[in-house]
Amino acid sequence: MNRTQARRVKSQVMTGAVMACVVLAVLPLVLILGTLIVRGASSLSVDFFTKMPVPAGETGGGVLNAIVGTLLMVGTASLIGVPLGIGAGIYAAEYPGSRLTWVVRFVADVLNGTPSIVVGVFAWTWIVASQKHFSGFAGAAALAILMVPMVMRTTEEMIKLVPHSLREAALALGYSRWRTTLQVVLMTGLPGIVTGTLLAIARVAGETAPLLFTALGSQYLVTRLAEPMSALPLTVFGYATGPYEEWHRYAWAAALVLILLVFVLNIAARAMAGRARAANG
Amino acid sequence: MTTIPADLRAAVSPGTETALGRRSRGDVAFRALLTLAALSIPVLLGFLVWELWTGSALARARFGMDFVTSSAWDPVAEQFGALPLVFGTVVSSLLALLIAVPLSLGVAIYLTEFAPRAVRQPIATMIGLLAAIPSVVYGLWGIFVLIPFLRSTIFPALKSGLGFLPLFQGPIYGPSMLAAAIILAIMVMPYIMSVSREVLEAVPSGQREAALGMGATRWEAVRTAVLPYARSGIFGAIVLGLGRALGETMAVTMLIGNRHEIAASLFAPGYTMAAAIANEFAEAAGNLHLSALTYVAFTLFVVTVVVNAGARLLIWRVARGSGAGSRAL
After folding, report:
1. Would the pLDDT of A218 be above 70?
2. Which residue among A121, A258, A266 places its CB closest to the CB of B297?
3. Contact criterion met (CB below 8 Å) for A124 and A214
4. Which chain B residues have a beta carbon less than 8 Å from that of A19?
5. In angstroms, rounded to a whole number, what is the distance separating the alpha carbons of residues A118 and B277?
6. What is the gyration radius of the CA atoms in chain B, in angstroms?
7. What is d(CA B209, CA B308) in angstroms, rounded to the nearest whole number?
């Protein structure tokens, strides 16, 4: 074998090696989703969505409290986090020269990299310690803090993509700056912003760590944010680390419900992204 | 230049005078509102730092810097030393990188340099889905699928093959440093992969064409022209993955065994900073215990900030302005 052939063979071997990496990287996804579907689906029933948890040892029951808790806390977190994030994102995109923009961008990146458990500790010292009780609101606040920087960064990037000529056209037609920003620039960037927001919601919906000592979890159906509250990720954690076989089955089923929720949000986000790309040509 | 009569101004832009350089009341109010939203982010961070700093005051006054060099962790005797936590955090994260980096680089190289166009996006999307799986689900899968498999197959094989190393000696429990590192590797892989892919895509195609034009094989073009160009960006992607691994909580808590000990063996249980907070915070025994855990949180925060800032600097140097690495996913 001459040198050229040896080099060609080496190139082919390396191509094979990186393809093997792809297989190894995709394998965990297939295995995790596979086990989730197989083990989770067998424990799913209508009761699982509509009934409350039963005491250990009894069969039947569901996780209604956790589903309600997750929806309430994620909803509240979005109500707080999304407007703040979008507002900050518009600011950073519309006033790129301002010193505040530089600071906000940097701080948002710092917050994005902050472990969610640290945000949980912050929410505890800030809300739980001062109110002297655990509450769904403290959990929602922790989730909102995680959402703000994510939403802010996507909003900024999406608004920057809006062609400058659109803005100029609106201004030339006599639109004031704020109407230009809201009705022309924001509306043009909206599909992308919705995508980013849905991804952020999906991210925090699966968060457990910031809820452990803020929302704490609850056996009861709680709809008041001032009380401790359950959530799907907390249920998965509690049942998975518990001692009973029956609990483990619930953990798999709750995990399947959680992942369906997260994936539906992801797919919706990607569908919006596809529409955004089509609209921008 | 002729001045525009006031009535024409009003006709062009009812209620505002923006086009002529002056600000309308609406614009001022709008900007004030946006500024408030923007200010909320640095204010939140400042508040976070302040709360963690004052919350850890008790432990800092009591233990000072000895906190990170002592191994004692006894809530009853009120002795707290975080060395095993720091050790577990660093070792599990580095071990995870050792596994995840070659894999994610391989995937990134395949996707940017070798893959047919049609399969690029589907593969990237599939690996992106790994990043969407909640941490607690990884933990669940780790407890009931990964650990039994490791305990029955991989760990005994490692022990018989590499048992002469202290790393692979001692009893096999299941929950262990190595189990946590493997799950961490799966979890940080999508981040390292997607950022290195963006960095590799930012390499000018002239680099590749020049190498191929001089008769290099495709692999040689990657090795000699693409990778050196992207080196600091790839390093940044790895450091970003490190930042993720250091702060990862739930999956590690469920797999690492949660013991305040430093063991040479990777089969032995360990503990990480994030896991200790997750397990002990809600049931902390007293103010000093709470304060010590807040001190751990503060330390973890500072470390991740330093690591992430370093990573962004590195990525920014290669993929300037492409926004690589700052997206939510």
Report:
1. yes
2. A121
3. yes
4. 110, 114
5. 9
6. 26
7. 33
d(CA B136, CA A207): 8
Whether residue A208 and residue B249 make contact (CB cut-off 8 A), yes or no, is yes
**Both structure tokens of B142:** 């780790």
Q: What is the mean pLDDT of chain B?
A: 89
CB B147 within 8 A of CB B174: yes
Size of interface A-B (CB pairs under 8 A): 296
Judged against a pLDDT cut of 50, whether residue B12 lies above it is answered with no
The DSSP call for residue A2 is -
Q: What is the pLDDT of residues A69-78, one digit of tens each?
A: 999 999 999 9
Q: What pLDDT does B21 receive?
A: 54
- The distance of B16 to chain A (nearest Cα, Å) reads 6
* Residue of chain B whose Cα is closest to the Cα of A119: B48
| Cβ neighbours for A138, distance < 8 A, ≥ 6 positions apart | A123, A124, A127, A128, A131, A214, A215
Q: So what's the pLDDT on residue B312?
A: 82
Enclosing H/E stretch for B250:
helix B250-255
Q: Nearest CA to B173 among B233, B64, B261?
A: B261
Tens-digit pLDDT profile for residues B51-78: 999 999 999 999 988 999 999 999 999 9
- Contact (CB, 8 A) for A156 and A100: no
